[in-house]
């Protein structure tokens, strides 16, 4: 049975995840009391009449609930606007094409008629990638959910082709039935789709080992106003610049991906994992950096800083015995600022996990065994649900991520902390900032930040804007990227030029203009639409 | 002391490599006698007066020898035209900038004044990438040889920045002095440059393990008419499409690379290598395919087909005892069509080499120990010199390479063989076709072909064109790429659209036009200039 997505929140209506009282107490003792946001309620919206649309092929819905359900993604401003019933930009219709040919017909008709298309996979963008833009033209959201499933499998080459709208569980389900796996497991895994992953350069929990999605994409099929663009799978080439890489990260602006061919590997059953407690961030950081010097890499490598470790400790409910042991451990002076590392791998690399544990001990870490790791594995897709609960408890929360070379990461982490604290002081609010290192590479790693603040309902957007702006400024000044795996969307579009330079922006605009002369494909993502 | 490059042939004047008589006998018995090409001689050329140039900054040479020495690369038509003194397109000058700023000034002045620039690294292109194009405008070759050396090293991140004109030995020399290595070793290693590698998406003998150059490039600096484009090193990002990847394979058409930051690894001393004889191509092929299922990969993996193994056997001079053993081996019926595999690795993976040998034995192979491998390692950079000797002995010879998924490679290899044999029959000449698999990936591999034919001096270009065209047709029809690591250059430019589609071509043209509006940067590579 098809599960129902929650309106104005994460995931499915059949699942609700509440933080334990200890976590809320910790937030309240750090941040004070905030003003809870109301739950989102479709009844509170009065939608404007849809603009008249040309006849479009395939199923197209224009009812209010469809227009409301597909109007935006899961960013903080998206959720805030939905919960306060202040969202104003609705699609005039939602299209549900069932084939590449139907998408192509839609794209071509829309280009001729000046209809804006917003392609949408799982709708989980946290950077405004699927939020309906302000545009005087009619806007149609193109949901790719019916372009789903395994289309072909080349077992000898380890290549699998999926419809772009295939969500994570269906991807792995179809592969596992054939003895393969992709191993791409972003936190949005249960909702997001393979096409969305490719379009946004997604990373998953196992990316340190299996690679980011752009490393896994071997071929693509794209619908464009000029027709079908098919780039078949190739292991490598020197036939000019790699155009498959241009489509990864194109966020729907350079065409609508309708199918994706990915590199898959034989299924692996020997997953091993371990948690290690390091007395300090610096010791854990060095362990991670050194681990990436030689292959095989771990699949999962995730080092929480002291604040995140402490917060996580309050998030996990455990039996009283485990709690006593845990609390005793953190009470030891040496571990009072402890940082938790999770490391895991499968296949041949899985056999190395225990030796990594020994190496961690040599570098000052305390291996905690596999229980904490396994628990995290089981719980990880539930964590995004917590955000809704925090918003309903008066705490604002958002996340952002960046990446930089190893040598720059300490400065970058410090710059973000300082920048956010300055912004919070300006706003006269306290904040709680958590950070983990994940997605490590031989030459650097990603830092993932979570920040909480006490909500003032009338000022919530203003509060968020101040904090968000400070984080981007700090990242760009410290040489980080505006995003490691969330993408650019509309939220980071105005900042991209500072990272890629005026020539980079010029290159992207030239590509968009060449492939989509009418400018109908997801305008506003990557770079502001008015600059096009 | 600076060594002198050979005019109209490979490498340095202080080195000459002659094939052993056995190899020439084998060619003669297979192909009959051909007409030897004369050696190239600068005295035979009468250069047209150079066009008048605007004043350009930095050292600029306009003498005949410079214009002659920098007029083309090392493709078969290049060498043929030089040896027969029929080359007609000479630069009006050769510029030798010493800094990014000088390159930038050159590019900006040339763009204003309508002067065509042909950027040049080691000048080893075998696909016309550095051959002076037909163009009514003045043409200046921009030699990057003085932008050489290590500019900075970030040891903690394993990132090294080099001037674009740094040749292979200097790259590894500077890194090794600091305890690092890049491991990028194309056959042109002694001559080609890090900027040239990046611009052409080069691969090296160790690419199966260390990756192609586009995997190793973390950052670039580019000179453009609009100014400097700098993309600093990042381990990964989701900030839109990866523009560093657009510059890899741009072949000078999207800007002149002036420095390149690459991912380097700690130096490794434990290199292990092994040669294995497989009774058939199919058995060796399966061994390679399976080896790439799990990391760590070997660095070197190179499987010669029976014809190449047989030819190689005649190419290597060995002591009489070794020769007796070898000949005995090949006389055994089971090894009469034997295929030689070379496999090698260093670091942790080096420890796996002996277990790979055992696995090869289990799959029907006969491990021959490390001697043959070590010999190949020592001799490999001399092999390109042999081409000159073959041309001087009456045998035409050229190479090309492609890549495809594992499942398509058998059909592709057969299509190339059939296509070339048909073309040879049409030309009424015999050919000898050798092939090896190298640069393997989990999802496929590269096939590298060498073909010999008996030269008719007056028809040599016509003969080559017939064979070359047949190889490209076969590759494209069988789903291979027009090049795995030689690049597109001017030679494959007319074929690229069939691989990347009209939209791919449109995308490249849009990029070129946006970044180089005057169309002065290496026109004719990637796509024909008249289409721009």
Write the layout of secondary structure elements.
Two copies of one chain form a homodimer.
Chain A: H1 21-31, E1 59-61, H2 64-69, H3 76-83, E2 93-96, H4 100-113, E3 116-120, E4 139-143, E5 150-154, E6 159-163, H5 168-176, E7 180-181, H6 194-200, H7 207-210, H8 213-216, E8 217-224, E9 227-231, H9 243-247, E10 256-263, E11 265-266, E12 272-278, H10 281-291, E13 300-304, H11 306-315, H12 320-331, E14 339-345, H13 347-350, H14 353-362, E15 366-369, H15 371-379, H16 383-392, E16 395-405, H17 409-427, E17 432-441, E18 444-454, H18 460-477, H19 496-515
Helix pairs in contact in A: 17-18
Major sheet of chain A? 7 strands, antiparallel
* Helix proportion range of chain A: 25-40%
Please count the helical segments of chain A: 19
- Biggest chain pair interface: A-B, 93 and 92 residues
**Residue fraction in strands of chain A:** 15-25%
Q: Name the strands of the widest sheet of chain A in spatial order.
A: 15-12-14-13-17-18-16
The CATH class designation of the domain at 154-266 in chain A is: Alpha Beta
Termini gap of chain A = 43 Å
Number of strands of chain A: 18
Based on the coordinates given, report the CATH architecture of the domain at 154-266 in chain A. Answer: 2-Layer Sandwich
Oligomer: homodimer
Q: Kindly name the structural category of chain A.
A: alpha+beta
Overall mean confidence score, pLDDT of chain A: 95
- What name does the CATH topology of the domain at 154-266 in chain A carry? Uridine Diphospho-n-acetylenolpyruvylglucosamine Reductase, domain 3
Cα-atom radius of gyration of chain A: 23 Å
Stretches of chain A where pLDDT is under 50 for at least 5 consecutive residues are: none
Shape field of chain A: globular
């Amino acid at each position: 049975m098809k599960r129902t997505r929650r309106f104005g929140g994460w995931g499915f209506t059949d699942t609700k995840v509440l933080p334990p009282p200890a976590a809320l107490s910790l937030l309240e003792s750090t941040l004070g009391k905030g003003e809870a946001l109301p739950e989102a309620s479709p009844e509170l919206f009065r939608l404007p009449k849809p603009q008249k649309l040309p006849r479009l092929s395939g199923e197209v819905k224009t009812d209010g609930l469809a227009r409301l359900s597909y109007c935006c993604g899961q960013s903080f401003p998206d959720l805030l606007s939905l919960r306060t019933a202040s969202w104003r930009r609705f699609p005039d219709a939602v299209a549900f094409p069932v084939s590449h040919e139907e998408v192509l017909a839609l794209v071509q008709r829309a280009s001729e008629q000046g209809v804006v298309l917003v392609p949408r996979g799982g709708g989980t963008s946290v950077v405004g990638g699927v939020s309906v833009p302000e545009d005087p033209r009619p806007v149609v959201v193109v949901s790719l959910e019916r372009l789903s499933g395994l289309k072909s499998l080349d077992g000898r080459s380890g290549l699998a082709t999926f419809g772009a709208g295939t969500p994570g569980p269906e991807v792995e389900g179809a592969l596992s039935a054939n003895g393969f796996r992709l191993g791409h497991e972003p936190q949005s895994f249960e909702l997001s789709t393979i096409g969305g992953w490719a379009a946004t350069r997604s990373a998953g929990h196992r990316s340190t080992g299996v690679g980011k999605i752009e490393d896994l994409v071997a071929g693509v099929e794209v619908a464009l106003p000029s027709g079908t663009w098919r780039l078949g799978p190739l292991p490598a080439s020197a036939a000019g610049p790699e155009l498959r890489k241009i489509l990864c990260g194109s966020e729907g602006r350079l065409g609508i991906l309708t199918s994706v061919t990915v590199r898959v590997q034989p299924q692996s059953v020997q997953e091993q994992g371990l948690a290690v407690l390091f007395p300090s961030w610096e010791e854990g950081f060095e362990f991670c950096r050194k681990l990436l010097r030689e292959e095989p890499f771990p699949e999962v490598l995730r080092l929480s800083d002291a604040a995140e470790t402490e917060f996580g400790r309050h998030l996990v409910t455990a039996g009283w015995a485990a709690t006593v042991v845990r609390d005793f451990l953190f009470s030891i002076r040496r571990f009072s600022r402890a940082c938790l590392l999770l490391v895991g791998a499968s296949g041949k690399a899985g056999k190395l996990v225990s030796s990594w544990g020994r190496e961690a001990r040599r570098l000052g870490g305390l291996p905690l065994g596999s229980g904490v790791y396994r628990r995290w594995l089981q719980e990880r897709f539930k964590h995004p649900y917590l955000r809704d609960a925090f918003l309903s408890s008066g705490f604002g929360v958002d996340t952002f991520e960046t990446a930089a070379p190893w040598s720059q990461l300490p400065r970058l982490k410090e710059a973000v902390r300082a920048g956010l604290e300055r912004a919070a002081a300006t706003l006269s609010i306290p904040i709680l900032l958590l950070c983990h290192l994940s997605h490590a590479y031989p030459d650097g790693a990603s830092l993932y930040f979570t920040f909480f603040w006490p909500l003032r309902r009338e000022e919530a957007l203003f509060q968020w804007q101040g904090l968000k702006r400070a984080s981007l400024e700090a990242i760009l000044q410290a040489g980080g990227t505006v995003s490691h795996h969330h993408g650019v969307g509309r939220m980071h579009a105005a900042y991209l030029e500072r990272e890629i330079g005026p020539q980079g922006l010029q290159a992207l605009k030239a590509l968009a203009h060449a492939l989509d002369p009418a400018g109908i494909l997801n305008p506003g993502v990557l770079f502001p639409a008015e600059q096009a």
